[in-house]
């Protein structure tokens, strides 16, 4: 009898030990989530991780912003022999996920990114497997499927620019002077920007992010590079050069030197942006949110300065070329084209002089051309890692950037007459560039997570 009791006690202890071991396994669900404050995909995943942590007390999620926990972040990568430093990066036991998407079901491993492609389904499954039981997402599951809002309560900000534009019929007779027309047009641009940000404030954030995530990244790069290409500084110098070339009465010289100037500008811009991207990628990892705020403030200020020039040109500080600089470039261009129309002219020297002029111009205007590329670099380093990706996208950016300059060249070759940028054209260029800068600057300050595309 005594032996039977001992056997029962031993069996009971084994069973209890098994339950205790299982309970210990369930309590050992630890997840490390590394993110960056300026990374839009991290903001997307943050909602999921917070929902898991809030609804599952047996799961411990360690949230680490890489600029604040840089040493821990690097040690995690080094311990697992991971070279790719992109975020969001999620560690669930021995499984690592890179990136995040709401959609997607298949568990897919990426050799270049050294991790499984992160998506909502697979991250939840990995945590459930490590925990040994299902996890709850609470209200997050429904919030992630936020439908398109309807009704005037949401969409009324769109009425602001419509009503403002309709006012043109009433005030048209009073817009007799150029200054009044500029004031009215500036008000229209302002109403568009204000209405857009009011709409962002009213729309549910999951809906906004799902819409933005669906936009293709090439479209974003094309749009911002084209806006950057409408650069009054480069326009002015190219027009000066081409206007002088019309006196040589040679379309060949105009095409050759004009193309040389544009190509030089593209190469200089590529080098400049690559330096920004490489430096930005290094510092954004460490001081992401601070840099985003500083860049947003600088870009917003530059946008306001350009918009100021639309109303009050040549008054106060400006980001454009001064009259003295324009005169200096005009003299340099004049020396380049001098004698080209004469027999025995040395075209090679003119090409070399044009290259030097292009380098000089781009060095002078770096202060105002750095604005929109700063927006581009923040999106690039949050999406890609590696010199090949940086170089490819930056080359595409620079090709789009020179499209307006190529259009000016083709127009000059076709018309073949001396033309200057008028003051009104310069003002409109300033307003266009200023509106883009103001829009993206405000996004970087208040909604950096929306700088996410496809």
UniProtKB/TrEMBL annotation:
Recorded coiled-coil stretches: none
Top-rank taxon: Bacteria
InterPro entries: Thioredoxin-like_sf
Transmembrane segments: 154-171, 183-203, 215-242, 254-284, 290-307, 347-374, 394-416, 428-446
Cited SUPFAM superfamilies: Thioredoxin-like (SSF52833)
Sorted UniProt keywords: Membrane, Signal, Transmembrane, Transmembrane helix
Leader sequence segment: 1-22
Name of the protein in question: Uncharacterized protein
Originating species: Desulfofustis limnaeus
